[in-house]
Amino acid sequence: MTAGVIRAGFRGAIGKFSLDAAFVAPGRGVTALFGPSGCGKTTILRCIAGLLRLSEGHCEIDGELWQDRNGAFLPTHKRPIGYVFQEASLFPHLSVRRNLTFGAPRSAEALPPGGVAFGEVVDLLGVRPLLDRSPRNLSGGERQRVAIGRALLSRPKLLLMDEPLSGLDRATKDEIMPLLERLRDRHLLPIIYVSHDLAEVERLADQIVLMEKGRVLAAGPLADLQSDPSLPLAMARDAAVSLEGVVEAHDARYGLLTLRVTGGRFLAPTPPLPIGERRRIRIVARDVSLAREPPGPSSILNILPGRVISAKPVASHEMLAVVALGPEGQGARLLSRLTRKSWEQLAFIEGAAVFAQVKAVALEPPRGDLSE
Amino acid sequence: MEAFVHIWEPVRLTLELAAVTTLALIVVATPLAWWLARSRAPWKEVVAAVVSLPIVLPPTVLGFYLLIALGPGGPGGAVASLWGARTLAFSFSGLVIGSMIASMPFVVQPIRNSFAAVGDRPLEVAATLRASPSRAFWTVALPLASPGLLTGAVLGFAHTVGEFGVVLMIGGNIPGRTRVMSTAIYDSVETMQWREANILAGGMVVFAFAVIFSMILIEKRFARVRA
What we know:
Chain A is α+β, with helices and mostly antiparallel strands. Chain A is about 20% helix and about 35% strand. In chain A, helix 5 (about 170-185) links the parallel strand 7 (about 160) and strand 8. Residues about 365-370 of chain A have low confidence and may be disordered. By secondary structure, chain B is an all-alpha fold. In chain B, about 80% of the residues lie in helices and about 0% in strands. Chain B contains eleven helices and no strands. Chain B has helices at about 1-40, 45-55, 60-70, 75-80, 90-120, 120-130, 135-145, 145-160, 165-170, 180-190, 195-225. In chain B, helix 1 (about 1-40) runs parallel beside helix 5 (about 90-120), helix 2 (about 45-55) crosses helix 5 (about 90-120) and helix 10 (about 180-190) packs antiparallel against helix 11 (about 195-225). The interface of A and B includes residues 49, 51, 78, 136 and 154 of A.
């Protein structure tokens, strides 16, 4: 048993579907279970919650054993979890307030580490004006916010979220996503987040468990899996990497922010942010071109030295190159998608020193989202 | 005055019988309906069919077996011997037992349906919020199924008021002890007391209307709650 680690593995069949999946993840941050619909993500989440018991399973959270192969099985109501279902599933016979406090410990016990108070959750989720209403006449977004608050107020040590945004329209998603980011950034508790939407995962996840047909393809930090050419993420047409950047400076004259990542610096046009703040940036493989020599005067702001560490043909006329930033190639990894013709004419080889020209750097969350 | 007692006695007894029967039925039928709605036991439908038998059986058949079961040779007689009686038949407690069995399907069915309509999700949510199975039952399943409980109670009460055959077989129509409205009407007609028969029968019509009308209102309310 190991503290600070989530270890889960389940094997069994449900009808025709068979699941045989195991993963280990750090017991902090957001771990995304990602894969196409029907690959078994929700099944794993239900197993972790104890809502489903497969013939063989093992589940160990932060040093506590919830299930093992010798028949130990902690029933759901004894597991310190919060579970947010795809549909908010509020209790229709209780007010918003009583929904929120349903799972809250009734005695005033000491807050466990990371515990949050009622008022804090209510304000974080912006549900104060809804407290005395019935869940029946709330909008989809309001319901989901109450459901998240209800899960948080049960003082969980692990938050399980099953596609909490997938039933919502675009505008409502944009309203809830920043709340989830805020939740992540406050490091209250580890979150396991099920999603089939790559954009959500790229914004939220710290590490991902990549799934397909009931199996785990790979598990690890988000950027590592994004830049692994043996996995479908990197090979996709809209492949991208997400990097953690630290704000270093802001140039008010041009409205440009300097962000440091390991092995390089990026300039991005955004409103000022406090120095030292961490922001996630997303760089799309198609926006990165490679040069052998430092390019001459150019309109491209971000030109960073690095080394090609691997390259692989995608389709008949394109190559996907993985570039590690820094002159020695020790830094963060970028993906670059370039034509085979350029690859051969410029005589790139693995290990070659290159200059990555990055056309666009997207800061997440998008500007303005977290303006308060 | 005598005519009033003649009418009032069976009315009082009927209401008493129906109230006691309904209360006892809710207590017995709710856990049974919960089990029928939630269990995965393959033979649960056998139990459901047995519970539903009184819908199809002629009341005389039911009454006949009940008479044997409640009589001195049956389990009812054994129970009655505890307080020195010979039989539970021809007594108020015998009527309650008979009415419970005769009305059971009308109470179990709506409660079972409403538990089934609640579904797994609210109970799963309750479990993820640390609610033990019994807390989930009392604070989630029962309140959500309350329209079904109300329907079951109304139907159980009404069916007990309207039961004739079973009551006649095991009750014996003893004035003040087992003569309820339905048997009193029969008795009044037999003895040509048309006025009493008219009042009792008319009362039953009004009562039946009230029951059906309130059922409709409950259904409407139920539909609104679900929406």
